[in-house]
Design brief:
By secondary structure, this protein is α/β, with parallel strands linked by helices. Helix content is 41%, strand content 18%. The protein has two domains: 3-139 and 260-305, 3-Layer(aba) Sandwich (Rossmann fold), CATH 3.40.50; 141-256, Phosphofructokinase domain (Rossmann fold, 3-Layer(aba) Sandwich). The chain has helices at residues 16-29, 40-45, 79-91, 103-116, 140-161, 176-185, 199-210, 230-240, 262-280, 300-303, 312-320, and strands at 3-8, 33-37, 49-51, 96-101, 120-124, 164-169, 189-191, 217-222, 246-250, 286-291, 294-299. Helix 6 (176-185) runs parallel beside helix 11 (312-320). The chain is elongated and about 70 Å long. The structure holds 6-O-phosphono-beta-D-fructofuranose.
Protein backbone atom coordinates (compact mmCIF):
# COMPACT_ATOMS: atom_id res chain seq x y z
CA UNK A 1 0.00 0.00 0.00
CA UNK A 2 1.73 3.12 -1.21
CA UNK A 3 -1.28 5.30 -1.93
CA UNK A 4 -4.71 5.30 -0.29
CA UNK A 5 -7.71 7.31 -1.53
CA UNK A 6 -10.36 8.48 0.90
CA UNK A 7 -13.85 9.80 0.17
CA UNK A 8 -17.10 10.62 1.96
CA UNK A 9 -20.38 9.67 0.33
CA UNK A 10 -24.14 9.84 0.94
CA UNK A 11 -25.61 11.98 3.72
CA UNK A 12 -22.88 13.77 5.66
CA UNK A 13 -22.56 13.09 9.39
CA UNK A 14 -20.81 14.96 12.23
CA UNK A 15 -17.44 13.29 12.80
CA UNK A 16 -16.68 12.58 9.15
CA UNK A 17 -13.95 15.23 9.29
CA UNK A 18 -12.41 13.57 12.33
CA UNK A 19 -12.32 10.30 10.37
CA UNK A 20 -10.71 11.97 7.32
CA UNK A 21 -8.08 13.50 9.61
CA UNK A 22 -7.35 10.11 11.18
CA UNK A 23 -7.04 8.41 7.78
CA UNK A 24 -4.73 11.10 6.41
CA UNK A 25 -2.46 11.21 9.43
CA UNK A 26 -2.30 7.44 9.88
CA UNK A 27 -1.31 7.15 6.22
CA UNK A 28 1.44 9.74 6.63
CA UNK A 29 2.65 8.06 9.84
CA UNK A 30 2.97 4.82 7.84
CA UNK A 31 4.65 6.53 4.85
CA UNK A 32 1.59 5.98 2.68
CA UNK A 33 0.43 8.85 0.44
CA UNK A 34 -3.17 9.89 1.27
CA UNK A 35 -5.32 11.10 -1.62
CA UNK A 36 -8.47 13.06 -0.80
CA UNK A 37 -11.25 12.41 -3.33
CA UNK A 38 -13.90 15.13 -3.51
CA UNK A 39 -17.70 14.67 -3.63
CA UNK A 40 -17.72 10.92 -3.08
CA UNK A 41 -17.96 8.57 -6.04
CA UNK A 42 -18.72 11.55 -8.29
CA UNK A 43 -15.22 12.89 -7.66
CA UNK A 44 -13.76 9.45 -8.32
CA UNK A 45 -15.47 9.37 -11.71
CA UNK A 46 -14.58 13.00 -12.50
CA UNK A 47 -11.01 12.66 -11.20
CA UNK A 48 -11.40 15.36 -8.55
CA UNK A 49 -8.65 14.43 -6.13
CA UNK A 50 -5.42 15.66 -4.59
CA UNK A 51 -2.71 14.54 -2.24
CA UNK A 52 -3.40 15.59 1.34
CA UNK A 53 -0.78 16.75 3.84
CA UNK A 54 -1.06 16.63 7.59
CA UNK A 55 -1.81 20.38 7.58
CA UNK A 56 -4.67 19.91 5.14
CA UNK A 57 -6.57 18.24 7.96
CA UNK A 58 -5.61 20.68 10.73
CA UNK A 59 -8.48 22.20 12.71
CA UNK A 60 -11.18 19.99 11.27
CA UNK A 61 -11.71 17.49 14.10
CA UNK A 62 -14.30 19.82 15.64
CA UNK A 63 -16.12 20.72 12.42
CA UNK A 64 -19.39 19.20 11.20
CA UNK A 65 -20.00 18.34 7.54
CA UNK A 66 -17.15 16.98 5.43
CA UNK A 67 -14.22 18.92 3.98
CA UNK A 68 -14.15 16.36 1.16
CA UNK A 69 -17.80 17.17 0.38
CA UNK A 70 -20.30 14.44 -0.33
CA UNK A 71 -22.78 13.38 -3.00
CA UNK A 72 -25.34 10.75 -3.86
CA UNK A 73 -23.96 9.67 -7.25
CA UNK A 74 -26.34 8.01 -9.72
CA UNK A 75 -23.51 7.54 -12.27
CA UNK A 76 -21.76 5.14 -9.92
CA UNK A 77 -24.82 2.91 -10.15
CA UNK A 78 -23.89 2.26 -13.81
CA UNK A 79 -21.12 -0.02 -15.07
CA UNK A 80 -19.76 2.80 -17.28
CA UNK A 81 -19.53 5.16 -14.30
CA UNK A 82 -17.69 2.60 -12.21
CA UNK A 83 -15.32 1.80 -15.11
CA UNK A 84 -14.43 5.48 -15.35
CA UNK A 85 -13.77 5.49 -11.60
CA UNK A 86 -11.50 2.48 -11.99
CA UNK A 87 -9.56 4.19 -14.79
CA UNK A 88 -8.91 7.11 -12.44
CA UNK A 89 -7.76 4.71 -9.70
CA UNK A 90 -5.21 3.30 -12.17
CA UNK A 91 -4.18 6.71 -13.52
CA UNK A 92 -3.54 8.00 -10.01
CA UNK A 93 -1.82 4.74 -8.91
CA UNK A 94 -4.17 4.34 -5.93
CA UNK A 95 -3.67 0.96 -4.22
CA UNK A 96 -6.65 1.01 -1.85
CA UNK A 97 -9.77 3.03 -1.06
CA UNK A 98 -11.41 4.08 2.20
CA UNK A 99 -15.06 5.07 1.85
CA UNK A 100 -16.87 6.82 4.67
CA UNK A 101 -20.68 6.61 4.53
CA UNK A 102 -23.73 4.41 4.98
CA UNK A 103 -25.40 1.44 3.29
CA UNK A 104 -25.63 3.04 -0.18
CA UNK A 105 -21.93 3.87 -0.04
CA UNK A 106 -21.01 0.32 0.94
CA UNK A 107 -23.33 -1.27 -1.62
CA UNK A 108 -21.41 0.71 -4.27
CA UNK A 109 -18.06 -0.26 -2.74
CA UNK A 110 -18.97 -3.94 -2.78
CA UNK A 111 -19.86 -3.91 -6.50
CA UNK A 112 -16.74 -1.88 -7.32
CA UNK A 113 -14.54 -4.40 -5.51
CA UNK A 114 -16.26 -7.34 -7.20
CA UNK A 115 -15.82 -5.80 -10.66
CA UNK A 116 -12.28 -4.45 -10.43
CA UNK A 117 -10.68 -6.01 -7.35
CA UNK A 118 -9.63 -2.67 -5.82
CA UNK A 119 -9.23 -3.25 -2.05
CA UNK A 120 -11.86 -1.14 -0.27
CA UNK A 121 -12.51 -0.64 3.41
CA UNK A 122 -15.56 1.21 4.74
CA UNK A 123 -15.99 3.43 7.77
CA UNK A 124 -19.61 3.66 9.02
CA UNK A 125 -20.66 7.32 8.89
CA UNK A 126 -24.41 7.90 9.04
CA UNK A 127 -26.68 9.49 11.59
CA UNK A 128 -29.14 6.63 10.89
CA UNK A 129 -26.92 4.08 12.71
CA UNK A 130 -28.43 1.34 10.56
CA UNK A 131 -25.38 -0.76 9.70
CA UNK A 132 -24.92 -4.30 10.98
CA UNK A 133 -21.68 -5.18 12.78
CA UNK A 134 -21.02 -1.90 14.56
CA UNK A 135 -22.60 -0.62 17.75
CA UNK A 136 -22.25 2.96 16.57
CA UNK A 137 -21.89 4.79 13.26
CA UNK A 138 -20.09 8.13 13.17
CA UNK A 139 -22.59 10.97 13.55
CA UNK A 140 -25.32 9.09 15.39
CA UNK A 141 -24.40 10.32 18.86
CA UNK A 142 -24.05 13.94 17.69
CA UNK A 143 -27.40 13.80 15.90
CA UNK A 144 -29.04 12.33 18.99
CA UNK A 145 -27.69 15.19 21.08
CA UNK A 146 -28.96 17.72 18.55
CA UNK A 147 -32.42 16.16 18.61
CA UNK A 148 -32.52 16.03 22.38
CA UNK A 149 -31.50 19.67 22.68
CA UNK A 150 -34.19 20.71 20.19
CA UNK A 151 -36.95 18.60 21.73
CA UNK A 152 -36.13 19.78 25.26
CA UNK A 153 -36.82 23.31 24.01
CA UNK A 154 -40.05 22.22 22.37
CA UNK A 155 -41.05 20.54 25.65
CA UNK A 156 -40.78 23.90 27.43
CA UNK A 157 -43.28 25.56 25.15
CA UNK A 158 -45.44 22.41 24.97
CA UNK A 159 -45.76 22.39 28.77
CA UNK A 160 -46.53 26.09 28.90
CA UNK A 161 -49.46 25.62 26.51
CA UNK A 162 -50.57 22.08 27.44
CA UNK A 163 -49.85 21.00 23.88
CA UNK A 164 -49.21 17.77 22.04
CA UNK A 165 -46.22 17.97 19.69
CA UNK A 166 -45.67 15.50 16.90
CA UNK A 167 -41.95 15.78 16.11
CA UNK A 168 -40.41 14.21 13.03
CA UNK A 169 -36.79 13.09 13.08
CA UNK A 170 -34.66 11.69 10.26
CA UNK A 171 -34.60 8.03 9.31
CA UNK A 172 -36.05 7.13 5.94
CA UNK A 173 -35.70 3.39 6.53
CA UNK A 174 -34.55 3.12 10.11
CA UNK A 175 -35.95 4.08 13.51
CA UNK A 176 -32.79 4.03 15.60
CA UNK A 177 -32.56 7.83 15.87
CA UNK A 178 -36.26 8.08 16.74
CA UNK A 179 -36.15 5.32 19.34
CA UNK A 180 -33.09 6.53 21.23
CA UNK A 181 -33.97 10.20 21.04
CA UNK A 182 -37.52 9.33 22.11
CA UNK A 183 -36.21 7.60 25.21
CA UNK A 184 -33.80 10.49 25.80
CA UNK A 185 -36.53 13.14 25.76
CA UNK A 186 -39.09 11.05 27.62
CA UNK A 187 -41.48 10.88 24.66
CA UNK A 188 -45.04 9.74 25.29
CA UNK A 189 -44.90 7.65 22.08
CA UNK A 190 -42.37 6.70 19.39
CA UNK A 191 -43.34 5.71 15.83
CA UNK A 192 -40.73 3.97 13.69
CA UNK A 193 -40.64 2.26 10.26
CA UNK A 194 -39.77 -1.15 11.75
CA UNK A 195 -43.09 -1.55 13.57
CA UNK A 196 -46.58 -1.96 12.04
CA UNK A 197 -48.73 1.15 11.55
CA UNK A 198 -49.38 2.38 15.03
CA UNK A 199 -51.89 5.17 14.63
CA UNK A 200 -54.91 3.37 16.17
CA UNK A 201 -52.89 2.29 19.20
CA UNK A 202 -51.50 5.81 19.37
CA UNK A 203 -54.94 7.37 19.70
CA UNK A 204 -55.80 5.06 22.57
CA UNK A 205 -52.47 5.71 24.22
CA UNK A 206 -52.78 9.49 23.94
CA UNK A 207 -56.33 9.44 25.29
CA UNK A 208 -55.17 7.33 28.26
CA UNK A 209 -52.23 9.63 28.85
CA UNK A 210 -54.40 12.72 28.80
CA UNK A 211 -56.16 11.40 31.89
CA UNK A 212 -52.82 11.25 33.75
CA UNK A 213 -52.65 14.99 34.34
CA UNK A 214 -49.75 15.49 31.89
CA UNK A 215 -48.80 19.08 31.06
CA UNK A 216 -47.53 18.21 27.59
CA UNK A 217 -47.12 15.27 25.26
CA UNK A 218 -44.35 14.53 22.77
CA UNK A 219 -44.65 11.97 19.99
CA UNK A 220 -41.43 11.23 18.10
CA UNK A 221 -42.03 10.04 14.54
CA UNK A 222 -39.30 8.70 12.27
CA UNK A 223 -39.42 10.18 8.76
CA UNK A 224 -40.01 6.71 7.24
CA UNK A 225 -42.79 5.71 9.62
CA UNK A 226 -45.40 3.76 7.66
CA UNK A 227 -48.47 5.95 8.06
CA UNK A 228 -46.72 8.83 6.27
CA UNK A 229 -44.72 10.92 8.72
CA UNK A 230 -45.52 13.63 11.26
CA UNK A 231 -48.13 15.55 9.24
CA UNK A 232 -50.13 12.40 8.47
CA UNK A 233 -49.98 11.32 12.12
CA UNK A 234 -51.03 14.81 13.26
CA UNK A 235 -54.05 14.83 10.92
CA UNK A 236 -55.12 11.46 12.28
CA UNK A 237 -54.75 12.60 15.88
CA UNK A 238 -56.59 15.88 15.23
CA UNK A 239 -59.56 14.14 13.68
CA UNK A 240 -59.79 11.55 16.45
CA UNK A 241 -58.91 13.74 19.40
CA UNK A 242 -60.26 17.25 18.72
CA UNK A 243 -59.68 18.05 22.40
CA UNK A 244 -55.88 18.12 21.88
CA UNK A 245 -53.97 21.22 20.81
CA UNK A 246 -51.70 19.51 18.24
CA UNK A 247 -48.55 21.02 16.69
CA UNK A 248 -46.08 19.53 14.24
CA UNK A 249 -42.35 20.15 14.17
CA UNK A 250 -40.02 18.66 11.53
CA UNK A 251 -36.44 18.88 12.75
CA UNK A 252 -34.94 18.24 9.29
CA UNK A 253 -31.33 18.74 8.27
CA UNK A 254 -30.37 20.51 11.48
CA UNK A 255 -29.88 16.92 12.73
CA UNK A 256 -26.99 16.32 10.33
CA UNK A 257 -25.02 19.46 11.14
CA UNK A 258 -23.00 20.82 14.02
CA UNK A 259 -19.85 20.02 15.90
CA UNK A 260 -19.35 16.28 16.57
CA UNK A 261 -19.79 15.01 20.12
CA UNK A 262 -16.83 13.68 22.12
CA UNK A 263 -18.01 10.14 21.43
CA UNK A 264 -18.12 10.72 17.65
CA UNK A 265 -14.69 12.38 17.57
CA UNK A 266 -13.02 9.50 19.39
CA UNK A 267 -14.95 6.87 17.42
CA UNK A 268 -14.04 8.53 14.10
CA UNK A 269 -10.38 8.80 15.13
CA UNK A 270 -10.25 5.11 16.03
CA UNK A 271 -12.08 3.93 12.91
CA UNK A 272 -10.01 6.12 10.57
CA UNK A 273 -6.81 4.74 12.05
CA UNK A 274 -8.09 1.15 11.98
CA UNK A 275 -9.22 1.44 8.36
CA UNK A 276 -5.71 2.32 7.19
CA UNK A 277 -4.26 -0.54 9.27
CA UNK A 278 -6.84 -2.90 7.78
CA UNK A 279 -5.86 -2.00 4.19
CA UNK A 280 -2.18 -2.39 5.10
CA UNK A 281 -2.92 -5.84 6.49
CA UNK A 282 -4.71 -6.99 3.35
CA UNK A 283 -8.38 -6.28 4.15
CA UNK A 284 -10.72 -5.71 1.23
CA UNK A 285 -14.46 -5.51 0.73
CA UNK A 286 -15.28 -4.94 4.40
CA UNK A 287 -16.40 -2.38 6.93
CA UNK A 288 -14.48 -1.48 10.07
CA UNK A 289 -16.78 -0.94 13.04
CA UNK A 290 -16.85 -0.90 16.80
CA UNK A 291 -18.39 -3.80 18.75
CA UNK A 292 -18.28 -3.97 22.53
CA UNK A 293 -15.64 -1.19 22.47
CA UNK A 294 -13.27 -3.16 20.20
CA UNK A 295 -12.56 -2.71 16.48
CA UNK A 296 -14.63 -5.11 14.34
CA UNK A 297 -14.33 -6.27 10.70
CA UNK A 298 -17.56 -7.02 8.83
CA UNK A 299 -17.91 -7.91 5.13
CA UNK A 300 -19.88 -5.22 3.26
CA UNK A 301 -22.35 -7.94 2.31
CA UNK A 302 -23.37 -8.34 5.96
CA UNK A 303 -23.10 -4.69 7.03
CA UNK A 304 -25.72 -3.48 4.52
CA UNK A 305 -29.25 -4.57 3.57
CA UNK A 306 -30.89 -3.62 6.85
CA UNK A 307 -29.51 -6.63 8.68
CA UNK A 308 -29.53 -4.74 11.95
CA UNK A 309 -32.67 -4.96 14.07
CA UNK A 310 -34.34 -2.62 16.49
CA UNK A 311 -33.78 -3.73 20.08
CA UNK A 312 -37.25 -4.75 21.38
CA UNK A 313 -36.07 -4.11 24.94
CA UNK A 314 -35.62 -0.43 24.11
CA UNK A 315 -39.10 -0.23 22.61
CA UNK A 316 -40.52 -1.83 25.74
CA UNK A 317 -38.49 0.54 27.92
CA UNK A 318 -39.94 3.54 26.11
CA UNK A 319 -43.45 2.22 26.79
CA UNK A 320 -42.82 1.57 30.46
CA UNK A 321 -41.27 4.96 31.11
CA UNK A 322 -43.98 6.92 29.32
CA UNK A 323 -46.77 6.21 31.80
O1 LIG B 1 -28.93 8.79 5.47
C1 LIG B 1 -28.99 9.86 6.34
C2 LIG B 1 -30.21 10.69 6.10
O2 LIG B 1 -30.08 11.82 6.91
C3 LIG B 1 -31.56 9.98 6.35
O3 LIG B 1 -31.92 9.90 7.69
C4 LIG B 1 -32.48 10.86 5.56
O4 LIG B 1 -33.64 10.17 5.22
C5 LIG B 1 -31.65 11.19 4.35
O5 LIG B 1 -30.30 11.12 4.77
C6 LIG B 1 -31.93 12.52 3.74
O6 LIG B 1 -31.07 12.69 2.64
P1 LIG B 1 -30.98 13.98 1.74
O7 LIG B 1 -30.31 15.04 2.54
O8 LIG B 1 -30.16 13.55 0.57
O9 LIG B 1 -32.37 14.35 1.40
Amino acid sequence: MKKIGVLTSGGDAPGMNAAIRAVVRTCIYNKITPIGIYEGYKGLIENQMKEFSSRDVSNIIQRGGTVLKSARCSQFLTKEGRLQGYKNILANKIDGLIVIGGDGTFAGAKVFFEEFGVPIVGIPGTIDNDLYGTDFCIGYDSALNTIIEAVDKIRDTASSHNRLFIIEVMGRDAGFLALRSGIGVGAEAILIPETPVYTEKLIKKLKDQSTQNKQSMIVIVAEGEKSGGAHAVAEHVKSNCPEFDVKVSILGHIQRGGSPSALDRVLASRLGNAAVDALKNGSKNEMIGILHREISHIPFEKAIKHNVNINPALLKLSEILAI
